[in-house]
Amino acid sequence: MLETIIFLVLALIITGGGIYILLSKEPVYSVFALVVSLLSMAGIFALFGATFIAALQIIIYAGAGVVMIVMAVMFYKYEHNSLTKLKKWWLGALLLFVLFLDLSAILFKFEKSALSLNPTSTVELSKEFFKHYIYPFELVSVLIIVGIVGVLIFAKERKNK
Amino acid sequence: MICGYSVIFLSIVLFLIGIAIFISKKTFIMMLIGAEFSLNAINLLLVFFSKVKNNLDGQIFVIFSLTVAAIEVATGIAIAVILYRKHKIQKREDLKELKG
User: Fold this and answer.
1) Phi and psi dihedrals of B91, rounded to 5?
2) Count of the separate structural domains present in chain B
3) Which CATH number does the domain housing residue A69 bear?
4) Residue A115 lies in a domain
């Protein structure tokens, strides 16, 4: 019973943060709403027992990613009205509704089964990770190097041109 | 006892909110925020099914997804900042040179 209440409160916070991002005109406020949503999502992960994922969510998303976004917002000079005036907003709403119907097929496919809230042990997770997913792990490290090099090339000033 | 349907419903709603942010905002950084939001919704679904099926593969995929999302944010923000610094392009309507 208690976990249901916690889940519903966190879900309301996340959805409210998303709707605030959608409607707000100030970029910095919407970045902070994003932080609140991401931290609440980490709370839901911890509630489900995926504690390691919750820690990663806080460190990577809410720590590193959002700091980068705030830095970029500081580089920009914003006009305040950043929401597009959509002339055919009903078309977008119809598209989202159709997409919702499409995705709700997952709801009908889902057979009701018990959700175990026991914490996943990080030792088991890492054993599974390095037993079966060692090559994807190496490929992701290559991807990180490619990303770093790409960002450095982008950010380099070309003077003699 | 958390109802599984409510988790799936929450994930779908968050994904659609992310897509709505992506298509209704003008500036690149707000669009990136929308993409992050959608990715997060998918992570929720992966963790949920990993816990329901008692299978660790879902959580491992979430780790990969987190890494790729971090790289995506870094490169996307670099491109946005470069576009603003060199060409003073801030909104997506101004990207007319990429046409065709």
Assistant:
1) -105, 165
2) 1
3) 1.20.120.1200
4) no
| Residue type, position B81, single letter | V
- Does the distance separating the beta carbons of A86 and B57 come in below 8 Å? no
Walk along chain A (161 residues) in steps of 10 and give the mean pLDDT of each run.
89 93 86 92 91 91 86 74 62 86 83 76 88 91 92 75 51
Q: What is the mean pLDDT of residues B16-42?
A: 89
Q: Nearest 5°: CA angle at A50, between A46 and A115?
A: 95
- Which tokens belong to A77? 């000079």
Residues A2, A67 within the same domain = yes
Instruction: Determine contact: A38 vs chain B, CB below 8 A.
Output: yes
Q: Which amino acid, residue A11?
A: A
Which domain covers residue B62, as residue numbers? 26-93
Please write the tens of the pLDDT for every residue from A56-74. 999 988 888 888 888 888 8
ipTM of the modeled complex = 0.88
- The verdict on a CB contact (< 8 Å) between A69 and B73 is yes
Residue A131 structural domain? 121-161
